[in-house]
């Protein structure tokens, strides 16, 4: 192997890996190093096979001697610790050291609880809100947009159509600014708000308990009671909140015996929900379930309520995974 500098050897390895289709995270390198690499590669032409084999052998030898590597700089350390320390702690460390976030802020923002992003959509300019929606997963963006008031949702949706001319640098700056703002928020003792917590508890409470609690909330705080009602999703809400096209997916993810018990026990005011589920299935599947329901006969109210709660739990899991979307009252 002729006398090659370490920069030349690095350029050879990078060129070889790129030729093999390996995607290298070179953007994570300092800009100065990226520039030096590009300049070095620009000065090189051909490398014979013997030299290439020698450079690769030396590279592999050095890699095998490395037992463990740590990220360079504080930002790299915070990236490794992401998910193991709180966002507020990371924000305090950055602020104390004057460190600016240098990774991809949108990757971090996309992993945040959607509820944390709602204030951005509600209070920031429509342009910033449009950029945020454009950088999120489609299911998450659709869910957040559906929670906005109609006029605001329309303005933000229209602003999305104007984001095509925004430069990547501007999008990155917006992401860093939003992430700094979101990380600076004080930590919350509870992940969900009071409405969501009460709604989740009442979701799986016996119907009699749920009605009694809501009646009491009406007397104490009618506004809060109405918000809790909107947060509650029970078996009776299925026809109004579920897209019929999602019913087969819900049925597949629910234990069949549990689904049959829930449908068999859905009588009286709950009968429309059972008919909605059966009507959204194929005729063959619906007829098969009707035969199973007839064979099962009368179901104890306690067993029926437990089965219905299991169906609701499946729906909530599918919604959380972004596989289905619940229809909001505004959409309805």
UniProtKB/TrEMBL annotation:
Lipid bilayer topology: Peripheral membrane protein
CC per GO annotation: bacterial-type flagellum basal body; plasma membrane
The keyword Cell membrane is assigned to this record: yes
Keywords of this entry: Bacterial flagellum, Cell membrane, Cell projection, Chemotaxis, Cilium, Flagellar rotation, Flagellum, Membrane
GO biological process: bacterial-type flagellum-dependent cell motility; chemotaxis
Gene Ontology MF terms: cytoskeletal motor activity
Keyword Cell membrane set for record: yes
Chain ranges of the Flagellar motor switch protein FliG C-terminal domain: 216-326
Coiled-coil boundaries: none
Domain Flagellar motor switch protein FliG N-terminal: residue ranges: 3-96
InterPro entries named among the record's database cross-references: Flg_Motor_Flig, Flg_Motor_Flig_C, FliG_a-hlx, FliG_M, FliG_N
Purpose of the protein: FliG is one of three proteins (FliG, FliN, FliM) that forms the rotor-mounted switch complex (C ring), located at the base of the basal body. This complex interacts with the CheY and CheZ chemotaxis proteins, in addition to contacting components of the motor that determine the direction of flagellar rotation.
Family per record: Belongs to the FliG family.
Name of the protein this chain belongs to: Flagellar motor switch protein FliG
Organism: Maritimibacter fusiformis
Record lineage: Bacteria, Pseudomonadati, Pseudomonadota, Alphaproteobacteria, Rhodobacterales
């Amino acid at each position: 192997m002729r006398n090659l500098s370490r920069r030349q050897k690095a350029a050879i390895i990078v060129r070889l890996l790129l030729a093999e289709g390996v995607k290298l995270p070179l953007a994570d390198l300092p800009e100065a190093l990226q520039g030096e690499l590009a300049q070095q590669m620009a000065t090189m032409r051909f490398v014979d096979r013997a030299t290439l084999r020698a450079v690769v052998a030396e590279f592999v030898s050095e890699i095998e001697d490395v037992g463990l590597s740590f990220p360079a700089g504080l930002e790299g350390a915070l990236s490794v610790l992401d998910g193991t320390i709180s966002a507020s702690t990371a924000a305090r460390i950055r602020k104390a050291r004057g460190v600016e976030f240098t990774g991809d802020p949108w990757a971090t923002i996309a992993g945040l609880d959607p509820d944390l992003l709602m204030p951005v959509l509600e209070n920031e300019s429509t342009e910033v809100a449009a950029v945020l929606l454009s950088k999120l997963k489609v299911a998450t963006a659709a869910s957040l947009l559906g929670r906005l008031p109609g006029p605001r949702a329309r303005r933000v949706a229209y602003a999305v159509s104007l984001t095509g001319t925004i430069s990547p640098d501007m999008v990155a700056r917006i992401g860093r600014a939003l992430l700094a703002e979101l990380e600076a928020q004080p930590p919350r003792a509870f992940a969900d708000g009071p409405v969501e917590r009460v709604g989740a508890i009442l979701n799986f409470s016996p119907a009699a308990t749920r009605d009694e609690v809501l009646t009491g909330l009406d007397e104490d705080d009618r506004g809060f009671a109405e918000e809790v009602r909107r947060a509650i999703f029970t078996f009776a809400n299925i026809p109004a909140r579920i897209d019929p096209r999602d019913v087969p997916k819900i049925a597949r993810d629910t234990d069949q015996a549990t689904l049959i018990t829930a449908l068999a026990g859905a009588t009286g005011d709950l009968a429309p929900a059972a008919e909605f589920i059966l009507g959204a299935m194929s005729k063959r599947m619906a007829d098969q379930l009707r035969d199973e329901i007839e064979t099962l006969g009368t179901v104890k109210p306690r067993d029926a309520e437990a089965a219905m709660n299991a169906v609701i739990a499946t729906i909530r899991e599918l919604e959380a995974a972004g596989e289905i979307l619940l229809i909001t009252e505004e959409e309805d």
